[in-house]
Amino acid sequence: MLSDLKFAARTLRQAPGVAAAAVLALALGIGASTAIFSVLDGVLYKPLPFPHPEQDPLTYGGVAALLVSVAVVASWVPARRATRVDQAIALRAE
C-alpha cells in the first residue's frame, strides 16, 4: 500500500493540473453536500415554529411537489438524451 501511495504522489507531481482539478472537484462536492444538508436539516428535520406542525397541509403539499418534480426531472433527462441519438448509430450498436 505504501508503494501505491508513492506512485500516486509521483503521478500527481508530474501532472499538477490534474491534481488541482481533483482537489477542486472534491472541495466543491464536499461544500455542496454540506450546503444541501444544512438546508434540508433546517427545512425538514427541525420542527416548524407553530403548534401542531404535523397537521400543516402546506408542508405536505410542498414535500409532495418536491418529490414529483424530482421524479419528473429524473425521468425526463434520460428520455431527452435518448431522443438525441442518431437512429443509424443506435441500430449499428445492437
What report would you give on this structure?
- The chain has 94 residues and is mostly helical.
- The chain folds into 2 domains: 1-46; 52-94.
- It contains 4 helices and no strands.
- The protein has helices spanning 2-14, 16-45, 57-83, 87-93.
- The relative contact order is 0.04.
- The model has no long low-confidence stretch (mean pLDDT 82).
Radius of gyration: 23 Å
Count of helix runs: 4
Question: What share of the residues lie within helices?
Answer: over 70%
Q: What is the count of distinct domains?
A: 2
What's the number of extended β-strand segments? 0
Tell me the β content. Answer: under 5%
Q: Which structural class should the secondary elements be placed in? A: mainly alpha
What number is the mean pLDDT?
82
Largest sheet: none
Low-confidence parts, pLDDT < 50 over ≥5 residues?
Answer: none
Give the termini separation: 42 Å
Backbone shape = flat
Order of helices and strands: HHHH
Oligomeric description of these chains: single chain
Task: Characterize this entry briefly.
By secondary structure, the chain is mostly helical. Helices cover 82% and strands 0% of the residues.
Give the SSE layout:
Blueprint: H1 2-14, H2 16-45, H3 57-83, H4 87-93
Please name the defining characteristics of this protein:
single chain; 94 residues; mainly alpha; 2 domains; flat
